[in-house]
Design brief:
Two copies of one chain form a homodimer. In chain A, 47% of the residues lie in helices and 21% in strands. By secondary structure, chain A is of the alpha+beta class. Chain A binds a DNA duplex (30 and 30 nucleotides) through residues 1-2, 6-9, 11-13, 16, 31-33, 36, 41-45, 47-49, 51, 64.
Chain lengths: 257, 257
DNA sequence: TGAATTGTTTGGTAATTCCGAACCAACTAA
DNA sequence: TTAGTTGGTTCGGAATTACCAAACAATTCA
């Protein structure tokens, strides 16, 4: 039989495999012995899995070290490029970054989480915690809250249930009702802030990219809170963001091809 | 038992799974019915595999369409960023692109193929066939031939055996001996050309990034053959490339951390 | 030289994948 | 409304195989 009960029967071997892949990534490559220590499988079992992965070019070997291969980059870039928002968003982010000097982000939702789809660095941009392809909870990001704000209420409840509202800084919203109140405000304003809710000293302002009945994603500009003041956000950044999202929404509505 | 005979026993279910993933990519998302047509498995079999992939967040559903998720981007960017050459190469490519106005590429070898690790677009750059994460044969690229030139002879034979020398244009080298002669020349010159060997009308010039006893990868500048003449390559681009690879080799030898 | 460590191979069985076929749910056409 | 179609979902059970244990090979270190 399979893992799990009742509906949605799963394939146990596949669970095993994906567990191996995830572990291989979190260890940043590992020898067979290290993997054996980390996972609850016999050495020989892991060995045949690794051989299969290598044969299919999903893993490369450096001596006795097994590492994930660039096959993942191939698939990943393919997925990224098949997203229309990603394609039209790239140049828009570059403009935003150039005009503000800060970091501009493009975020979409997947499986109830925020995924950093793209970024552009301005002149004064500082290296941040996040990177393209990375994931984060939705509730502590300007873009994440925007996405939640335009998602159906049931879906929001589901996401809160599933992922919780963990506290990252003293400013993170951890109460569901407080979050829902903020989402209401965001819907009224059409923009959202991240006021040191993710990292202390980091502020961001974002705007959503909306379609008819859907939210495609959101973009934001982030930077040090003392440089990116609330006034500067509202006066300088907000108009730029709204111009950008407006352009994106038009391009998504009337794709060039 | 398992797939394959003798040594390196493989896990058949894993082969199946990776086959599904590859198919899902080449179809750019598919319904269960479409996958059933494409692959030799029962509908119910594919269904449980897809359910497992979705449960592990490697696949997303849009209605009845199954698509690869951005999880692949996460792993892919992680692999890319754990490569030191990729990290130091990015800014160098940007400079090259800015100085030449053309497209600058960073290529590494994996499983006997060329992988486009990064690119930077100059002012006059035209959209090309290739994209980051993509793969190509080594024998028809300037960077690919460079990598072959500095790989052990046995390895070169192995790669020729395994992947062949398919013809992409009338200029592609398809004869093993001719290729080996060119590799010898490349070792003498320290640079390599791609003279319409990949796409008609496209020229590129590249230089290798060498370590002690190894070749890390290669970088190149490519553009329309009529603009990127052989003279311009030798006089303008070649010094820039050598300066760039020199910088990269130093940075790889003495990493900042 | 022997002990320790790590990757590789293999036999056999307990476990699971896989198929077939039935079951739904949503549309379409008559 | 009803019959027909298309596509996703579920489930029992036989055939296949993933998995473990244990032996083996190849290095490395004492």
């Amino acid at each position: 039989m399979t893992t799990g009960d009742g509906p949605n029967r799963r394939v146990k071997t596949t669970d095993t495999l994906l567990e191996i892949i995830d572990t291989l990534q979190s260890l940043d490559g590992a020898t067979l012995a290290e993997l054996t220590d980390e996972l609850e499988y016999a050495k020989s079992t892991l060995h045949s899995h690794l051989s299969t992965l290598e044969h299919n070019e999903y893993v490369v070997r450096n001596g006795d070290e097994y590492e994930l291969s660039l096959k993942f980059l191939e698939h990943g870039m393919f997925v990224k490029n098949s997203d229309e928002l990603s394609r039209v968003g790239g140049p828009v982010l570059e403009d935003l970054a150039a005009e503000t000097g800060e970091v501009a982000w493009l975020i979409v939702e997947e499986h109830g989480k925020a995924v950093y789809l793209d970024k552009a660095m301005g002149e004064k941009a500082v290296q941040t915690h996040a990177s393209v392809g990375g994931r984060a909870r939705l509730h502590h990001l300007a873009t994440g809250k925007l996405i939640l704000a335009y998602l159906p209420d049931e879906r929001v409840d589901e996401i809160i249930d599933c992922h919780g509202l963990p506290e990252l800084t003293p400013h993170t919203i951890t109460d569901p009702d407080e979050l829902r109140a903020e989402l209401e405000e965001i819907r009224e304003d059409g923009i959202a802030f991240n006021d040191k809710e993710t990292v202390d000293g980091l502020r961001a302002i974002g705007a959503p990219v909306l379609g008819e009945e859907t939210v495609y994603g959101a973009i934001s500009v982030s930077g040090p809170a003392n440089r990116l003041t609330v006034e500067r956000c509202l006066e300088e950044i907000k108009p730029l963001l709204l111009e950008a999202t407006n352009e994106l929404e038009l391009k998504l509505q009337y794709p060039p091809n």
